[in-house]
Amino acid sequence: xxxxxxxxxxxxxxxxxxxxxxxxxxxxxxxxxxxxxxxxxxxxxxxxxxxxxxxxxxxxxxxxxxxxxxxxxxxxxxxxxxxxxxxxxxxxxxxxxxxxxxxxxxxxxxxxxxxxxxxxxxxxxxxxxxxxxx
Length: 134
Known about the structure:
Layout: H1 7-11, H2 19-33, H3 43-58, H4 63-69, H5 76-87, H6 90-109, H7 114-129
């Protein structure tokens, strides 16, 4: 995705851009990049996996571990899809990392401990990931 602001702008609180907005924009980007021919059978599932991959990577996880976690090693289509998505995911991962960092900072500013803030942000991620694709 492309934005008119940087991840630093998000971290510094210069723009309001959170998980919900990121999810909305990721859905739009995903739809725009789906091929007109040979559409995947489960686009909603693949979109959710892309979002989870971005979250996994933004929180310090390794791509190979994510592939194993979602069973891509036993599904050639999913493996190929994930590798293609991963090649183009760096801007999204960086922006999502900034969003998560800002959310953690905001929670800590209102008095949460680091652990509580991390749990709170992880919970918000799970809620966004559960929002139906529009």
